[in-house]
Amino acid sequence: MTATSLQDISSSSYSDDDLECCRELQAEEWEVLQSIHPTICTSKSNGTVRLEVPVELDTERQIEIVPIPHELYNTTSGPAIPLQPVLLDSTAAEYKRTCNSASTISPISVSLSNLPPLLLDIILSPSYPTHSPAELTAIRAVSGWVPPRMMEEMRRQMMEMWADMGGDAVSGGGTGILYTWVEWIRNGEFLTSIGLAGQDGRIGIPHPSPALLVPLLRAHATGQQYKTFAQMSYPCGICLTSRKGVYCLHLGCGHVFCKACLVEMWGLHIREGEVSRVGCPEVGCESGGEFREATEDEVRAVLSEEEVKRWQWLRRKRDLERDPTTVHCPMEYCQEPVPREKTASTTEDDESGWARLRECHSCGYSFCSFCKRTWHGPHTPCPLPVTSKIVLAYLAASEHERITLERRYSRTSVQRLVRQHQEEEKNRKWLESSTTECPGCALRVEKSMGCNHMTCLRCRTHFCYRCGHKISATNPYQHFSTPGTSCFSKLFDFVPSGEDDWQPIEAFELI
Amino acid sequence: MDARLRRVNKEIADCKNDKASNIKIDLVDSSPFHLKGSFPGPKDTPYEGGVFEVDIVVPESYPFQAVKMKFITKVYHPNISSASGAICLDILKDAWSPVLTLKSTLISLQSLLCSPEPNDPQDAEVAKHYMTSKKSFEETARYWTHIYAGGLGSKGKVDTKEAAKDEIAIAGLEQTHVTQFEGLGFERSKVIDVLRRMNYRGSNAANISDERIIDELLK
């Protein structure tokens, strides 16, 4: 029967006043429902209403997907489906006995707070709600998570609800049945009524293929959670503003920050190579006693592909550099960290020349880890640094001797070598005078301000910036308060200038 | 407007609106990135009654890099350099987090004044003083609070006799000890310097012989 024919029949038996009254009541009911649940009311046209009702449980509930045979799932009548979850278990056990593939059809347990929506097609005849009921023409669960037979049971109970509300009486007591239905489904009450949930709150869903249904249920629940997250507002502790969830990232540790701030923070640390600082910005947010670093998914959600690549590279590099056998590829354009190959041969005779061999995975260069030159075999000793010998000889030589050397090795190449040498020398001198090497990992650090107690960013070793010695992590200041040592009372390098000791910090002048 | 400027402006405004915390943040010049913070010394400490000013520099990559802070007001405290005002507080270095603010950092400095940690000293000399005699340390700290962090009146001009006494009190020493060695013909400033370095205070004075001090004075 189509909607129009229904209208024809019903309109003939009621007075115009009655129908006008019904029209008004219907419009009002729809309007109210729409204002309460705008997303549930999908469409209304020509007396046909379509509702999409999601199932939103108060808390996460344990849901067991119990395998049942196809035939049992597809039947729409007969008492064969047990309505209590307790009974579901016995059905499953029986099913397992009759089927051989027990391993593929065992029940699967999931914990969810959202289930896919139910779609309801309802016809509101012109004489609804005073004279005729709302007719449920179709009811269907997205992803088919409710077996057809149970949908039949639902439909039966829903019609009963109409009768209970006094819909059969001429008084028009059935007004508002749509809202009652929606709530009954949305809050999950129907699960108990149709026997999918037991009194103890356990939910059991019979399905022919739990392994197929579970990912669909999970995907829906995650999507739903994200939707809720996206609509809420969260205060971001970095820009100190409130942003909608859709512009925020919910980190695995539970903290929420706006994406724009994380882009800046993580982007900066990745650019500057401080990979250990790419993590949750919250104070004291730790995992396993250490600063909580971001996961790959979190970094991907915020940064560009290029930055993610650099982040991965930095992490790999850091992990490799923790290995003391790691040396850097001597190729100027490459600089990849190259650890020693973990092969059986290196352990059996570490003394052999093979232990010096390194092969760069990035550029393929094979070199000696001692002299950083092209691999010269395990037996040949490292060649003497001929070039530096020439340079030193040249620098020490008199004017006249220099000309001889220039003639022998060509003037331009000698001068190039000298320039290189001088530059290296300058670098070395600067490193020596302006930086201190971490006694833990040999990373060179330059102090910009503050006291002489340093904590290495890379290996977390505590050391003294003045003398470069490792100091106790638990009592680092003892080093500076032991009389008689060279660093006694030298926690701060302070050179009294006499006139005005109380100087503002250097950085002020830069502004 | 860039994010840093937006955030700093917000922080300054938030601080202005929050009367309860007593933390003030003011501009030093026209730049919003060079600021001056101030807070009252905590109650029931030698710093009570003083107002402590802090120089604040907001670095370019703030808030992802720690704010730079140092005391403008001289403070006698084991964890603050008595010479430069530098502070070595973990949150100003590696424990910094972008969720910390100028206000919360200034509050941390204020609570640092409440709880000196002499085992974690920044200024070894002050820490030694604290360890030798807490009472004498507190006297000196109170004196510093009075002359450096007090009201306008205490910063006024003082006559030379007053000034000489000040010098001794600032160093946390006793008048009699200084005059004793001054009487031997040493310069007052040198005596103060040596006695201060040797922590010639309270019960520790008995542990240091006059000869050792004279040796130091002659160096």
Automatic annotation (TrEMBL), chain A:
Pfam families: IBR, IBR_1, RWD. It catalyses: [E2 ubiquitin-conjugating enzyme]-S-ubiquitinyl-L-cysteine + [acceptor protein]-L-lysine = [E2 ubiquitin-conjugating enzyme]-L-cysteine + [acceptor protein]-N(6)-ubiquitinyl-L-lysine. Pathway: Protein modification; protein ubiquitination. GO terms for molecular function: ubiquitin protein ligase activity; zinc ion binding. The keyword Nucleus does not apply. Coiled coil: none annotated. Residues 232-491, 236-281 form the RING-type domain. Its EC number is 2.3.2.31. It is an enzyme of class 2 (transferase). The keyword Zinc applies. GO terms for biological process: protein ubiquitination. Keywords: Metal-binding, Repeat, Transferase, Ubl conjugation pathway, Zinc, Zinc-finger. Belongs to the RBR family. RNF14 subfamily. This is RBR-type E3 ubiquitin transferase.
From TrEMBL, chain B:
Its EC number is 2.3.2.23. The active site is at C88 (glycyl thioester intermediate). Keywords: ATP-binding, Nucleotide-binding, Transferase, Ubl conjugation pathway. Residues 3-150 form the UBC core domain. It is an enzyme of class 2 (transferase). GO terms for molecular function: ATP binding; ubiquitin conjugating enzyme activity. It comes from the Eukaryota. InterPro entries: UBA-like_sf (IPR009060), UBA_C_fun (IPR015368), UBC (IPR000608), UBQ-conjugating_AS (IPR023313), UBQ-conjugating_enzyme/RWD (IPR016135). Pfam families: UBA_3, UQ_con. Belongs to the ubiquitin-conjugating enzyme family. This is Ubiquitin-conjugating enzyme E2 1.
